[in-house]
């Protein structure tokens, strides 16, 4: 296997010149570049990423921890993160936690052992990671995307879920709907709690009663929305509208209504949250609260790269503003 010294010898230049040509980090004349590139091609030389990372003390690699889910919201965010990594010359190592705390710990150790330049955290396991665990490794900059198991300070990017819950519920109220239920997400997650709080605030501000059984706690998955909607339909006074804490549960609610011989929105109006890619293609297209997933991916990478270059700066908390997307899943009374 050819080395940089072999390339330098064949091109008749120093190894530092070869390094400058490969990394494009210092001026080298076009004539010398041609000689170096010709030598690289002739020797079939491949630069060592490991050697380069040891020299510049960077691996140009970002690690990302994410919960595996049937909900395409996570996939869409990861896609945005990967695209923005690529545009900035970084590689992304993605670790799925599969909802397993042990796997989460193992994935964290793997990423830290590989000396990733930074971590993006978007997972939902219950177990907190102690400071002592992280102190076994050199400081790694990290950005939390909504929720993290780390008991340490970090930059945080999150959705204004309280406002989003209010937007969704107020939209139903303004359409003349009064018996409104909420299929909330798991209450150990801040976004789920805040969306539920937004629903309660909007109902309270409108002077509307939340009937017994109208608050159901789901799991942010399709099946959770299905079972929750089935429970709501069994009530002596079923709701005429439902705010689902995310689009996945809204889709599950669609299926429960279909199985019961009911339709959206004529029998029950549905509004979701996230605006995942499939939302406009449902029958009827889903009215929902949009989260800027591409912007989230870009902001996460921008924030992490700033943290890498400025490790001593104060942690930042960035809040994205949700937006109502009106389609056809809510009737007007």
Textual characterization of the structure:
By secondary structure, the protein is α/β, with parallel strands linked by helices. It has three domains: 4-47, 434 Repressor (Amino-terminal Domain) (Orthogonal Bundle), CATH 1.10.260; 58-160 and 293-320, 3-Layer(aba) Sandwich (Rossmann fold), CATH 3.40.50; 161-290, Rossmann fold (3-Layer(aba) Sandwich), CATH 3.40.50. Helix content is 43%, strand content 15%. It has twelve helices and twelve strands. It has helices at 4-11, 15-23, 30-43, 49-56, 72-87, 101-113, 131-134, 161-174, 190-205, 222-233, 247-259, 293-309, and strands spanning 61-66, 91-96, 118-122, 142-145, 155-159, 180-184, 215-217, 241-244, 269-271, 288-290, 317-320, 323-325. Helix 1 (4-11) packs across helix 2 (15-23), helix 1 packs across helix 3 and helix 5 (72-87) crosses helix 12 (293-309). The mean pLDDT is 89. Residues 2-56 form the HTH lacI-type domain. It comes from Xenorhabdus hominickii. It holds the Pfam family LacI. Keywords: DNA-binding, Repressor, Transcription, Transcription regulation.
């Amino acid at each position: 296997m050819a080395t940089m010294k072999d390339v330098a010898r064949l091109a008749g230049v120093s190894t530092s010149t070869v390094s400058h040509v490969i990394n494009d980090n210092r001026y080298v004349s076009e004539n010398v570049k041609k000689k170096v590139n010709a030598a690289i091609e002739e020797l079939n030389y491949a630069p060592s990423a490991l050697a380069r990372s040891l020299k510049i003390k960077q691996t140009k690699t970002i690690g990302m921890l994410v919960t595996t889910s049937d909900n395409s919201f996570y996939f869409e965010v990861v896609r945005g993160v990967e695209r923005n990594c690529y545009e900035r010359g970084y590689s992304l190592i993605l670790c799925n936690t599969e909802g397993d705390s042990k796997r989460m710990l193992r994935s964290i150790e793997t990423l830290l052992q590989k000396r990733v330049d930074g971590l993006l955290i978007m997972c939902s396991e219950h177990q907190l990671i102690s400071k002592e665990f992280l102190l076994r490794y050199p400081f790694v900059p990290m950005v939390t995307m909504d929720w993290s198991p780390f008991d340490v300070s970090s930059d945080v990017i999150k959705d204004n879920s309280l406002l989003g819950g209010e937007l969704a519920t107020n939209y139903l109220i303004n359409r003349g709907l009064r018996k409104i239920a909420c299929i909330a997400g798991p209450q150990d997650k801040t976004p789920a709690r805040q969306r539920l709080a937004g629903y309660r605030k909007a109902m309270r501000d409108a002077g509307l009663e939340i009937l017994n059984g109208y608050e159901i706690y789901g799991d942010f998955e399709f099946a959770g929305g299905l079972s929750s909607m089935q429970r709501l339909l069994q009530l002596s006074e079923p709701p005429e509208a439902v705010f689902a804490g995310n689009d996945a549960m809204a889709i599950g609610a669609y299926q429960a209504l279909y199985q019961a011989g009911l339709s959206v929105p004529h029998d029950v109006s549905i509004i979701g949250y996230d605006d995942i890619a499939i939302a406009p293609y449902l029958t009827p297209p889903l009215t929902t609260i949009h989260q800027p997933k591409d912007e989230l991916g870009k902001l996460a990478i921008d924030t992490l790269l700033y943290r890498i270059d400025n490790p001593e700066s104060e942690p930042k908390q960035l809040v994205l503003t949700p937006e109502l997307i009106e389609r056809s899943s809510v009737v007007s009374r």
